[in-house]
Amino acid sequence: MCSLLLLLSAGSLSAQITISASSLPSGGYRAYLSTPDTLLTVDPEPTGTNFDWDFSQLTAIAQRRDSFVALSQVPFSIRFFFTGATVARYQETPDSLVGFALNGGYEFFDIDANAYARMGIGGTLSGLPVALTYDPRDTLFHLPLTYGQADSSSARAVLNVPNLLYVEQEINRRWEVDGWGTLTTPYGTYQTLRLVTDITGYDSVALDTIQIGLPRPRQRLYEWWAQEEAVPLLAINTTLLDT
User: According to the 3-state scheme, what is the secondary structure of 77-112?
Assistant: First the structure.
């Protein structure tokens, strides 16, 4: 199984690139993302140096907007939980906390010269401000992002709403920048870095005296990053079958 997201953006050409903090989201950045037809045959595996990835055949069947906001635009009762965050992503359809939908949801990030990290998710649940905060933080990758970088990170988060809900979450990432070159999409041609991340994890939920453990399917995420945009130009998320 795979899912794809394609950024709607005009293309440009350049030499081999490096992604730094200045290339990543800040308050006021908006991205328009397309969901291509996943019935098309797409092979994300091929890679190399000075490589040519041609995904010009992708056809969008849906679009949505990603909006990043300054922390001053987030209600204090929510941002209070995320000291050290530098930007937040507003979620028009908020992520659920293992099946429990948040209202007014935001995802918080800390971006500095050394890393791009998720701090957690905040919103309201049954009218109460709640937050799932990662400690340690969920590092997506280190900065600057360059060809050949390979590393890993582990994060753990806990949400405890007394007499209502307890959620514990673990996320493990192992990533590698395994290629660089030219990416062609229906919207243009770009010079990119290709980032591959393997993701595993575990969710645990307790309601009253009932506790449920939910191991996450192993995922492999392929992303193509360019200096021109603060989110991946193309993302392909696949579910891996354990053998």
Answer: HHHCCCCCCCEEEEECCCCEECCEECEEEEEEEEEC
Question: For every one of its 243 residues, what pLDDT tens digit does the chain have, with 9 covering 90 and above?
Answer: 445 556 555 545 557 899 999 999 999 999 988 888 765 678 899 999 999 999 998 888 888 888 999 999 999 999 999 999 999 999 865 555 555 566 778 999 999 999 999 999 999 887 888 899 999 999 999 999 999 999 999 999 998 888 778 889 999 999 999 999 999 999 999 999 999 999 999 998 887 777 788 788 999 999 999 998 999 999 999 988 765
Taking Cα atoms as reference points, which of 168, 84, 165 lies closest to residue 125? 165
Domains of the chain by residue range: 2-239
> Which tokens belong to 163?
């007499």
Does residue 45 sit in helix, strand or coil? coil
Three-class DSSP category at 3: strand
Half-sphere exposure of 125 (CA within 13 A, CB side): 24
By C-alpha distance, which of 170, 172, 156, 159 is closest to 206? 159
